[in-house]
Amino acid sequence: MSAFRMGSWVSLLGFYWVLMELWSIGAACPASCSCSGTRIACVDQDPERSINAFPVLQSEIEMDNITDIYIANQSRFSSINDKDLHYYRNLTNLTVTNSRLTYVSRLAFQNNLRLQYLNLKDNNLSSLSWRIFRHLNISNLILSGNPLHCSCENMWMKLRLDEGVDPQDLKCIAEGGRRKPLSSLNLPHCVVPMATLNVSKVTELEGSDMKLTCNTSGAPSPELIWNMAPLVSYYKIETSGQVSELHLHNLSSLDNNCRISCSAENIVGQHESSVVLDIRFPPNISKLMDAYQDHHWCIPFSVSGNPKPELHWLLNDLPVTEGLYIFTKIHDFSDKEYHGCLQLDSPTHINNGPYTLLASNEHGRDQKTVYAHFMRDPFEGGTVTEPLYYDPTTEDTPIGPPDDRVAVYVVVGIAAVAFMGFLLMLVILKFGGNSKFGIKGASSVISNDDDSASPLHHVSNGSNTPSSSEIGPDAVIIGMTKIPVIENPQYFRSNNMLKSDTFVQHIKRHNIVLKRELGEGAFGKVFLAECYNLSPELDKILVAVKTLKEASENARKDFHREAELLTNLQHEHIVTFYGVCVESDPLIMVFEYMKHGDLNKFLRAHGPDSVMMGDGPTNRPVELTQSQMLHIAQQIAAGMVYLASQHFVHRDLATRNCLVGENLLVKIGDFGMSRDVYSTDYYRVSVGGHTMLPIRWMPPESIMYRKFTTESDVWSLGVVLWEIFTYGKQPWYQLSNNEVIECITQGRVLQRPRTCPKEVYDLMLGCWQREPHMRHHIKDIHTLLLNLAKASPVYLDILG
Ligand SMILES: *[C@@H]1O[C@H](CO)[C@@H](O)[C@H](O)[C@H]1NC(C)=O
Ligand SMILES: *[C@@H]1O[C@H](CO)[C@@H](O)[C@H](O)[C@H]1NC(C)=O
Ligand SMILES: *[C@@H]1O[C@H](CO)[C@@H](O)[C@H](O)[C@H]1NC(C)=O
Ligand SMILES: *[C@@H]1O[C@H](CO)[C@@H](O)[C@H](O)[C@H]1NC(C)=O
Ligand SMILES: *[C@@H]1O[C@H](CO)[C@@H](O)[C@H](O)[C@H]1NC(C)=O
Ligand SMILES: *[C@@H]1O[C@H](CO)[C@@H](O)[C@H](O)[C@H]1NC(C)=O
Ligand SMILES: *[C@@H]1O[C@H](CO)[C@@H](O)[C@H](O)[C@H]1NC(C)=O
Ligand SMILES: *[C@@H]1O[C@H](CO)[C@@H](O)[C@H](O)[C@H]1NC(C)=O
Ligand SMILES: *[C@@H]1O[C@H](CO)[C@@H](O)[C@H](O)[C@H]1NC(C)=O
Ligand SMILES: *[C@@H]1O[C@H](CO)[C@@H](O)[C@H](O)[C@H]1NC(C)=O
């Protein structure tokens, strides 16, 4: 070893010495020894200071750390007694050499199960029993230089030498004092014992009888011992001479897998032979308990049986088909039983019911039933405590998970998407100059007798839009669609929310000059317009105006209510509502104009596939960066925090309903086109009405029970995040609406988008917890996104 190592070793030793001095009052480490952290060495040659007993340290903890004990040249050291090494549990190496060791107790190493290296060279040992080491796995045993006798007691050393375990030159003293090599030792009545069971495998039926015979040999005559764990079966042992019989009567299944061994032991050594009982018996289900929710749902059971029983489940007496979402899982085999679960991944109320476990093997069968309840059945007896957030005036039954009871169909097919896409491209080509979303169209003016601006009614007669009767008295329109507030009882039933003195700004018709049509929605056309005298600083500003086609009495009431509502929702990430113009038909609402249009289109235009929409390779828009995506997400979350603080449930949060302005400013709102352009995003329910639902954005409880809450908005926000990180892909685009409903109600969630960082996907998963109360809080989502966005600064100018 290097000088450095030696030096550090010495200083370490010194350090330990100091520590020892501090710790131990009195001589814990004998004077002739040195005690370091893991080693004790006693090598002082002064006979006066020789140890005469095994060194013992102050505390058990110290002794626990010792792995190495070295004793040499201790002239008064003669024995290792029962408890001397008791606390050196981690001892691996022991050397006692050149001392006067004469006696080693049979229990000396009882507690030193790690002992591997034992050097007892040059001592005064005349014999040593193999039994001292029977429980150990000694790899080096050095005994040379001892006055060993050529006795049967030392025969095991010869056998060990014969095996070549630790080659050394061992001699023994024969009668008459002559020394001879131990390897040539040959004693007439000194033979290692053997034990033989006449069977190697026992397979018996429960309740039967059997007999085992053990034949032993060896000299001196070995002691014959049967070893077994306490047996439940009745048994009797009959021994005569070297042969013993074990009679087992009425074998109990509880003794299955028991090991029975027969051992023979004498002074030379020991040998044993064993069998494992294989007792066959019919299944017994000892436990079938109530379902509990862990990571998944589990109906726990314990079942015994040999051979291993086959397990099948019945629900309401019908076989349960096991698959990806429901399957039997055995966790472990212990206490002679198989313990497992019927594991259910996100079960719903249709999974409620009596579960019967059938266990069978060739010897019989057993069954037990337990009632499992996972989720309240919303159809049962009107005990629903939470309101179903759906218009109570219609005879509408909430849809259940997809099954035959509910006839559902897709409204608009792929052809429509393609067609709309084509139209969209035409619009873009027509109006797109350098900027795809730039304003270049010819101006137009609202004409009172223009057919397209027919009498106000906020619902068209179009087949894929709701009719006003379905919307009910609470219907209000936000942005330009009816969805968000209409069925939001929280909002309308808490009176204080809607300030009675809300002042809706009125704008004069002559101050609005239409420039071009932006689109046509379910409720009327949307135009880009210039609005004069709206703000004191500016002469005119660009606005988006929404016209209402029809104006029935109801529609007018709705219109005013919506205007009041919008006036009250003011936030930097909610699209700004400027006011109304009700001087004449059509009625008009004036909104802030967001240059880049809806976020979904924007994402697609700035994604990898955007070359399709761009003006050619040279003008291809820059792909959004991750930090820009985070910036977008963060702004939507900010808007949602605000809506939640106003106890407002959006119900249709999606990128198509967000708008993008300059400098990547994003706001929540929409311009009423989304229903038409994005009709495949919605799912039409035929039961009791023609409600369109954005199921791909909806959590299970909204799909199944039409329950919309701030928590369901959080779910949708998770989907919005997914949309952002996929550059505007449709969630579950590869699946049909029916398949989507099945997936969501089964508990599947969208996969991590390729470009999505883990933190963001974790956030999505936090939004998609099945239990609404388990989902992230909207405020936390916003904070997290804000921090992530801050961590990667946005370079806005790329997008202008
Ligand atoms: C025992 O060893 C451990 C780690 O090897 C050490 O942290 C501890 O201080 C030692 N205890 C004593 C009493 O030496
Ligand atoms: C000593 O053995 C005990 C178990 O007996 C173990 O927990 C401990 O880690 C061991 N200490 C050292 C230093 O090996
Ligand atoms: C023990 O003493 C002998 C001589 O008496 C000496 O050669 C040997 O090095 C000593 N052993 C130790 C470990 O000090
Ligand atoms: C223990 O003995 C073995 C075998 O001789 C040796 O390799 C090892 O280094 C020793 N361990 C200690 C801590 O002395
Ligand atoms: C060696 O052991 C024998 C007994 O086995 C004893 O009579 C003798 O005194 C011992 N020799 C020494 C030097 O201790
Ligand atoms: C005994 O030790 C050896 C190596 O030292 C190891 O290979 C063997 O598995 C051990 N046996 C038992 C029963 O611990
Ligand atoms: C074992 O021996 C007993 C008699 O000693 C006999 O009855 C039994 O059938 C034997 N078992 C086998 C498997 O040979
Ligand atoms: C026991 O074994 C010996 C020799 O191995 C054999 O001679 C004897 O017949 C056996 N006895 C029984 C009962 O199997
Ligand atoms: C066997 O044991 C079982 C209980 O373990 C008992 O019910 C049965 O009566 C017993 N049969 C005989 C034949 O003793
Ligand atoms: C089945 O197991 C239960 C619980 O361990 C036990 O009470 C019952 O006796 C067993 N039934 C049979 C037929 O073994």
Automatic annotation (TrEMBL):
This is Tyrosine-protein kinase receptor. Its main location: membrane. The keyword Membrane applies. PROSITE patterns: IG_LIKE, PROKAR_LIPOPROTEIN, PROTEIN_KINASE_ATP, PROTEIN_KINASE_DOM, PROTEIN_KINASE_TYR, RECEPTOR_TYR_KIN_II. It catalyses: L-tyrosyl-[protein] + ATP = O-phospho-L-tyrosyl-[protein] + ADP + H(+). GO terms for cellular component: endosome membrane; plasma membrane. SUPFAM superfamilies: Immunoglobulin, L domain-like, Protein kinase-like (PK-like). ATP binds at L518, G519, E520, G521, A522, F523, G524, K525, V526, K546. It comes from Umbra pygmaea. The record marks Y491 as: Interaction with SHC1. The chain crosses the membrane at residues 406-429.
